[in-house]
Amino acid sequence: MSNPKPHIGVLALQGDFEAHIKMLEDVGAHGIAIRLPRHLDTIDGIIIPGGESTTIGKLMVEYGLHDILLRKIQEGVPVWGTCAGLILLSKETDNALLGQPLLASMNIRVRRNAFGSQRESFETDLKVPVLGEAPFHAFFIRGPLVERVGAGVEVLATLDNGTIVAVREGTMLGTAFHPEVAGDPRFHDYFLRIVRSVTL
Questions:
Q1: Which residue, 29, 43, 138, 152, has fewest beta-carbon neighbours within 10 Å?
Q2: In whole angstroms, what is the distance from residue 24 CA to residue 26 CA?
Q3: Catalytic residue among 20, 83, 169, 188
Q4: Active-site annotation holder among 20, 66, 169, 180
Q5: Which residues fall within 8 angstroms of residue 59, CB to CB, at 6 or more apart?
């Protein structure tokens, strides 16, 4: 008997959530757009996509999702934040707006818009040992960077200059770039393995 498909919720308030959902389907999961609290009832994992972290944070509160998402994370439901999602998951940010809602769950400090404006967006190949030997082609679009990691946080990838751009803490995953646009399913497959380790 084959394993049941995990149900992965993708926060669909802003950002390229549809690309995440397509990638999840490609690696054998059900991707579910999350817009209302009831959409979180039966999910096995959560992806918080890129976008504008201040806007996403405010919409999470407005739609009644913030406290439920935080509770799910605290209960151990796997979560993955990409770009803005990484900012929302971090316990510390260097320049978050006063009063910006955060999920503040990962033991990391991040810097927002660390690489400059949209015009300074770039792409590069990353060495990510947990994904295998082949490099992962990463797209950075107004991305943050991880300035500091605390106890229990594993660094998964850095730029050539040592800048941390991918981390994991238990069932929480964070990437400063946009894996959903790379056409490479390995990061989504890696997250799916985290989800399966908890649910199966």
A1: 152
A2: 5
A3: 83
A4: 180
A5: 13, 14, 65
What DSSP designation does 6 have?
Answer: P
180 is catalytic: yes
- Please check whether the domain covering 7-199 is classified as CATH 3.40.50.880: yes
What is d(CA 65, CA 55) in angstroms, rounded to the nearest whole number? Answer: 13
Each residue's pLDDT tens digit, 28-61 = 999 999 999 999 999 999 999 998 888 999 999 9
What's the CA gap between 131 and 128, in Å, rounded?
Answer: 6
Q: Which is the catalytic residue, given 20, 66, 178, 188?
A: 178
- The residue ranges of every structural domain in the chain are 7-199
Q: Which two tokens stand for residue 191?
A: 């997250």
- The structure tokens listed for 46 are 């959560």
**Cα–Cα distance, 31 to 77 (Å, whole number):** 15
Active site residue 178: yes
Q: Which DSSP helix (H) or strand (E) runs through 64?
A: none
CA angle 159, 163, 165 (to 5 degrees): 75
Active site includes 154? no
- DSSP-assigned beta bridge partners for residue 174: 81, 167
